[in-house]
Design goal:
pyruvate-formate lyase- activating enzyme, 3 domains, five-stranded parallel beta sheet, disordered N terminus, binds iron/sulfur cluster
Length: 443
């Protein structure tokens, strides 16, 4: 089990029965992990226990009832799901104290019940890997795939290493098993997340694991290679521009994984990057971006930056604006620096006054909006695959390969009411603003 924060609420989990039931379990576990819960194998001390039951034959019914009894005795707060859950009365007769019962394939309800009966993990924009909206249930057609916990860096504005410890990579076989089950359960897009995706496997010296009876190295490139065999969209988040990232760009150019990189760069002034204790150098980042685009012209680059970090002068800020003008990133998030309790940056001299932070934030956003808008304008008249997220009586809303859910823009398909959530269709882009696109299905 990974070294998750000790303050995270804990969920005891027991899964019984056939592989189909395992798919449900996997989905529930994926969601719990993404939401910030810690899954534990013992009942004692857990905030809640989930028993995923089997009711196929009498033996399985007995085994499930015993598991529920054991969880009630050792913990007391138990929710039941799975095949036996379809026979609620049978469970209630033996175990009236069970909090909630749901049948098979009802992971949404299970997660709702978890949110009701267990304390909610605290949402902190500085430590959470998914947007605040991610706490609401992820729709069935996409899923976050968490590949590691913790981080080996010590960025001065961040408290993750002190909360979650050093990098702790999940075994590659278990990550790929989870991904495969998610794909089999109908997931069409996997969003790979961790604090530092490009560092995957560093802590275990890129040990060779096994998957499908084959040796597979624990590193980002091998992970991407294997994920590409699942026939679903694979999107990479939180990738640092280390040299080996160059090796995933050809996979993007070949269409194996989405041509999308989320690289949190945070600043462009060497002095500020040093004060932040960030890896990498700006010139090399620009060169690298140029090379990546030569290899994969379709590449979408998303990044986040902090303005108003302690010691940031007008000159440092101008470097950041120059970097934006040159890098022409597609999607950019910007935060005004604010101290996080326990972060070492709090002790730095020359804190930037709030009004200057505010002013710089607006200057930054204004420039980036022009760049993003131009990049979207360039898409008008072209055709792209779009995954459908929502359909109502007015039309459908989807995302192109360049748009991650919740954080990037969307593609509006007015009048396209016959599409279904999770469909991937070819769309001709007809219009654009600073964030979103409009188009219709290419027929
Ligand atoms: S890379 Fe830096 S910002 Fe990201 S989790 Fe690690 S310490 Fe925090």
């Amino acid at each position: 089990m990974s070294n998750t924060t000790s303050t995270a609420p804990t969920i005891g989990f027991v899964s019984l029965g056939c592989p189909k039931n395992l798919v449900d379990s996997e989905r529930i576990l994926t969601e719990l992990r993404t939401d910030g819960y810690q899954v534990v194998s013992s009942y004692e001390g857990a905030d809640l226990v989930i028993v995923n039951t089997c009711g196929f034959i009498e033996g399985a019914v007995q085994e499930s009832l015993e598991a529920i009894g054991e969880a009630l005795a050792e913990n007391g707060k138990v929710i039941v799901t799975g095949c036996l859950g379809a026979k609620e009365n049978q469970i209630r007769e033996v175990h009236p104290k069970v909090l909630e019962i749901t049948g098979p394939h009802s992971y949404e309800q299970v997660l709702k019940h978890v949110h009701t009966y267990a304390p909610k993990p605290e949402y902190n924009p500085f430590t959470s890997l998914v947007p605040a909206q991610g706490i609401k249930l992820t729709p069935k057609h996409y899923a976050y795939l968490k590949i590691s916990e913790g981080c080996n860096h010590r960025c001065t504005f961040c408290i993750i290493p002190s909360m979650r410890g050093d990098l702790d990579s999940r075994p590659i076989g278990s990550v790929l098993d989870e991904a495969k089950r998610l794909a089999e359960a109908g997931v069409k897009e996997l969003l790979v997340i961790s604090q530092d995706t490009s560092a995957y496997g560093v802590d275990i010296k890129h040990r060779t694991g096994f998957w499908n009876g084959q040796p597979v190295k624990t590193d980002m490139v091998s992970l991407c290679e294997q994920l590409s065999s699942l026939g679903v969209w694979v999107r990479l988040h939180y990738v640092y521009p280390y040299p080996h990232v160059d090796n995933v760009i050809p996979l993007m150019a070949e269409g194996k994984i989405l041509p999308y990189l989320d690289i949190p760069l945070q600043h462009a002034s060497p002095k500020i990057l040093k004060a932040m204790k960030r890896p990498g150098s700006v010139e090399r980042t620009l060169e690298r971006i140029k090379r990546w685009r030569e290899i994969c012209p379709e590449l979408t680059l998303r990044s986040t930056f902090i303005v108003g970090f302690p010691g940031e002068t007008e000159e440092d800020f101008a470097m950041l604006l120059d970097f934006l003008s040159e890098a022409k990133l597609d999607r950019v998030g910007c935060f005004k620096y604010s101290p996080v309790e326990g972060a070492t940056a709090n002790e730095l001299d020359d804190q930037v006054p709030e009004d200057i932070k505010e002013q710089r934030f607006h200057r930054f956003m204004q420039l980036q909006q022009q760049i993003s808008a131009q990049r979207l304008q360039d898409k008008i008249g072209l055709t792209y695959p779009v995954i459908i997220d929502e359909v109502d009586e007015e039309g459908a809303i989807g995302r192109s390969m360049a748009d991650a859910p919740e954080i990037d823009g969307v593609v509006y398909l007015n009048g396209e009411t016959s599409l279904k959530t999770g469909d991937i269709v070819q769309v001709r882009i007809e219009n654009a603003d600073e964030y979103d696109l409009w188009g219709s299905v290419a027929r």
